[in-house]
Amino acid sequence: MQTATPMQRKATRPRADALRNRERIVTAAREMFVEHGPDVPLDEIARRAGVGNATVYRNFPDRDALVREVVCSVMDRTALAAEQALAEHGDAFAALERFVHASADERISALCPMISSTFDEHHPDLEAARHRVEQLVEMVMARAKAAGQLRADVGVGDLMIVVAQLSRPPAGAACLSVDRFVHRHLQLFLDGLRVPARSDLPGTAVTLEDLRRA
């Protein structure tokens, strides 16, 4: 089985304690961006991570660097979920289901709309992380189609749009208050992807290129 090549953003590996601190900062930032948005004070992130402000700035010279690392980290974890799904499931559609539910748990849809305008979307780190995720999603879907389990008129863009929409809270709802509904609604969507299709979809399958042009 072919998998996407993991990206490497750091030329040298930091000491174990420094790496742990960096991971704690990224985890705390991810949680607080989801809960409060991207403008949460950095000292609050440092407090939740259990580190000093100086440690945050030593790892991330500005807010953009931290936000970018959070997004890359979430995409890396999403890509890993796709790799694990491909490796652990003999059933192709079960692999697709595993990936979709794991992607929702990463809250990537809650993060990206809030922070997409705060930094350069074409930064090499972001491009590499995005490419890896896209490549793996294509592999998961191609496998399910080849097995005759996934309807042929669905594109990668269709899947990514719906996962983002269904795992994002509706207007006026607290971000974390609707978590208990996400997997139920995602499963309803996934059931609609199975062969045989119950209806003809209007329009054409949405590709990744369509998403980039949108």
From TrEMBL:
**Keyword Hydrolase among record annotations:** no
Q: Which UniProt keywords apply?
A: DNA-binding, Transcription, Transcription regulation
SUPFAM superfamilies recorded: Homeodomain-like, Tetracyclin repressor-like, C-terminal domain
Give one Pfam family.
TetR_C_43
Query: What ranges are recorded for DNA binding?
Result: 41-60
Gene3D superfamilies in alphabetical order: Tetracycline Repressor, domain 2
Q: Which PANTHER family match?
A: HTH-TYPE TRANSCRIPTIONAL REGULATOR BETI, HTH-TYPE TRANSCRIPTIONAL REGULATOR RUTR
Q: What is this protein called?
A: TetR family transcriptional regulator
Name the species this protein comes from: Streptomyces spinoverrucosus
Q: What is the lineage of its organism?
A: Bacteria, Bacillati, Actinomycetota, Actinomycetes, Kitasatosporales
